[in-house]
């Protein structure tokens, strides 16, 4: 593929990403959907309309999810620092509060799901990596695929995995 075609396809996918992110945000602002529900609906709508293939929607959806997760904390802090509530009119403050509350709930739900996906328990089989006890933070370094034992320090059974 020529550089010109690759550049065109890259710009096209960027535009599709922006459409998907924008539609997801619109659905979230309606306040009737969680982030995952809004993203799923946005992907369905845009792929049904022919804007996306199902594969593109899924791939770009993962990018939207990743970017929201990575940037949400930074954005929340920046907004908190930039806005002085006493300077906002009551109506604007109320609207902003609703958006932040909805976003916070969505981010909390997303963080809980993400944390749950990294949770490993005694008796499960895992590949090599480091397991950190969620109770006492002791680390177990697995050098090969093995069944997870209880924590050698506190004997608890729930761990977080890192590689």
Describe this structure in words.
The chain folds into two domains: 3-117, no CATH class; 119-162, no CATH class. It is 60% helix and 13% strand. It contains four helices and six strands. The protein has helices spanning 3-29, 35-48, 54-82, 90-117, and strands spanning 119-121, 125-126, 129-133, 139-142, 146-147, 158-162. It is globular. Helix 1 (3-29) packs across helix 2 and helix 1 (3-29) crosses helix 3. The mean pLDDT is 78. The strands form two sheets. It has a four-stranded antiparallel β-sheet with strand order 1-6-3-4. With 163 residues, it is an alpha+beta fold.
- Rg, rounded, reads 21 Å
Q: Would you report the number of β strands? A: 6
Strand content: 5-15%
Helical proportion, percent range: 55-70%
Multimeric organization: single chain
| Estimated structural class | alpha+beta
Strand line-up of the largest beta sheet: 1-6-3-4
Taken together, the total number of domains comes to 2
Largest sheet: 4 strands, antiparallel
Ends distance: 36 Å
Counting DSSP H or I runs of 4 or more residues, the number of helices is: 4
Shape: globular
Low-confidence stretches: none
Secondary-structure element sequence?
A: HHHHEEEEEE
Mean pLDDT across residues: 78
List the defining traits of the structure above.
alpha+beta; 2 domains; 60% helix
Structure, briefly:
This protein has helices at residues 3-29, 35-48, 54-82, 90-117, and strands at residues 119-121, 125-126, 129-133, 139-142, 146-147, 158-162.
